[in-house]
Amino acid sequence: MKIENVQDFIRQIEDLPTLPDLYFKFREKIDDPKASANDVAKVISSDQAIASAILRVANSAFYGFMRRITNVPHAIVIIGFNGIHHIVLNMTVLNLFKGKNNIGDFNISKIWEHSLATAAIAKVIARKVNYSNLEESFTAGLLHDIGKVIIYKYLPQEFREIIEEVKKSDIRIRDAEEKVIGVDHTDIGSCLLMEWNFPKSLVSAVAYHLNPFLAKENIQIVSIVHLADIISRALEIGDGGDSKIPMICEEAWNSLGMLVEDIEDIVSEVDSELDASSIFREFIR
Amino acid sequence: MIIKKRIDDLKEGVVLAKDIVNENGLLLVAKGTFLDEKLLSLLKDRGVKWVYVNVNIKELDQPLPKELEEECRNIEERIEKKFKEFDDHYVMRKIANSAKEYLKTRLFYNYVDKD
Q1: Contact between residue A159 and residue A151 where contact means Cβ atoms under 8 Å apart
Q2: Residue in chain B nearest A60 by alpha carbon
Q3: Which chain B residue shows the shortest CA-CA distance from A66?
Q4: Looking at this predicted complex, what is its ipTM?
Q5: Which tens digit of pLDDT belongs to each residue from A88-97?
Q6: Would an 8 Å CB–CB cutoff place A175 in contact with chain B?
Q7: Handedness of CA B4, A109, A95, A28 (dihedral sign)
Q8: pLDDT value for B11
Q9: CB B1 to CB A271 under 8 A?
C-alpha cells in the first residue's frame, strides 16, 4: 500500500490511540498558575502506575540512599511541573503502544530501546549545550521514531516488507519505507504528534531529525535529536531498524556550538543517564 | 565512562563522578571529590550503597582478560566498517573512537561484575 496523504492515513486509522482524559486533566492543572503541587498530586494519584513512577524518579535523584520520598506532592516539588509533565507524557505514549508483538524475528521493543537510548543521550547533549528544556529533549528523543511504531502496528505487512527490503538491498530503513509505502517514519510520526496537538518543538524534532537542514524553526532541539540518534546507533543500543549510521549534518553540528572533544564526555555519561530513566524501560518490554 | 559501583567494592583513591545530594537537594559530596578511606566509611555509615565513578578501558587496574581480546577486536572491526563511508570526517571519527571505548569498557565491566 502506498500512502498518498499522511494526514488522511493517520485520521483513517480506526483504533488510533487517543490521549487519556487523565492527561488533559493533568495539563489543565499544571497550566493553571494558581495550582499547587497538592492539586497536581490529586490528579496524578488517581493513576497508581504514574504516581509510583513519579516517586521512583524523585528517589532516583538521590542515588545510593534508601527510598526517602514517599508522598507524591513532595516528589512533584522536587521534580518540578515541567519534569512531571514530560514523565506523564512519556508514560502515556508508551502505555498507548504497549504490548509485545513480533513481526517475523523483529521485536518492536528494539526500536523503543533505541529510542530510550536516544532520549537519554539527547538529555546529556542538551545539558552540555545549555538547552533550555532538558526534559523536552528527552521526550523528543523518545518519540523520534514513533512513526516506525505506527507502521509496525497499523501496517504490519508493509513493516515486514520494509525490514526485508533493508536486509535484501542493504539500505537505510527510511529509504525502504519510501520504497514500500511512499513516505517515511518522520512524515508519519510528525503528523501523529500534530494530530495530538503536541508542542511544535517535538513535532519539528520528529519531522527533521534525519534532515536537520530542512528545519526552519526549533533548530537546536532538532540538532540535539539528530546527534543523539547518531551516537545511539554508534553505541549499538537497541535497533533502529537498520545498521547504518547517519552522517552528521554540518548545519546541525554548527548550531550546537560544541567542541568535538565534548563527544567523549557525552558518551561517558550515557549509561548513568540511562540508569536514571530506567522507569521507562518497564514499559517497553 | 561513568558507571555505578558498589561502595563496598571501592578502594581508596577513586574520584566521584556525580554529586551526592540528600533528599532536600542539598549537596553532600561534589563530583570530582577524591574518596579517601575516611570519606568512604562516612558514606557507608550514612547508608550510601553505591556511587558513580569514572572508568576507562585505557586505564584498567588489571590486564584485559584473554577471553575478551577477541571480542575487543570484533568491536574495533565492526565500528570501523560502519564508519568507513565517512572518510574520517572529524566529528564522525570522534564518535567512532568514543563508541569503541564505550563498547570495550562496557564489555570489560560486564565481565568483571559478573563474578
Answers
A1: yes
A2: B23
A3: B47
A4: 0.91
A5: 899 888 888 8
A6: no
A7: positive
A8: 82
A9: yes
pLDDT value at position A66? 55
Residue A134: predicted pLDDT: 94
Decide: A47 and A55 in contact? Cβ < 8 Å.
Answer: no
CATH 1.10.3210.10 segments of chain A: 101-284
In CATH terms, the superfamily for domain A101-284 is: Hypothetical protein af1432 (1.10.3210.10)
Domain B2-54: homologous superfamily in CATH: Molybdopterin biosynthesis moea protein, domain 2 (3.90.105.10)
Task: Please report, as a single letter, which amino acid is at residue A112.
Answer: W
- Residue B23 in this model has a pLDDT that exceeds 70: no
- Alpha-carbon distance A235 to nearest alpha carbon in chain B (angstroms): 5
Instruction: Chain B: give the shortest CA distance to residue A218, in Å.
Output: 22
pLDDT bin (cut points 50, 70, 90) of residue B114 is low
The residue ranges of every structural domain in chain B are 2-54, 60-114
Tell me which H or E stretch contains A47: none
pLDDT score at A135: 94
The pLDDT of residue A30 is 86
Mean pLDDT within B6-22? 85
Identify which of A64, A69, A268 has the shortest CB distance to residue B48. Answer: A64
A67, amino acid identity: R
Across the interface, whether the CB atoms of B99 and A68 are under 8 A apart is answered no
Q: Which of B49, B79, B91 sits opposite A260 (nearest CB)?
A: B91
In order, the DSSP letters of A62-109 are STTSPP---SHHHHHHHHHHHHHHHHHHHHHHHHHT-S--EETTEETH
Nearest CA in chain B to A68: B23
- Identity of the residue in A69, A231, A272 whose CB atom sits nearest the CB atom of B95: A231
Would the CB atoms of B99 and A234 count as touching at under 8 Å? Answer: yes
In the predicted model, residues of chain A with pLDDT beneath 70 are: 61-67, 99-101
Residue found under cell 566529528 = B91
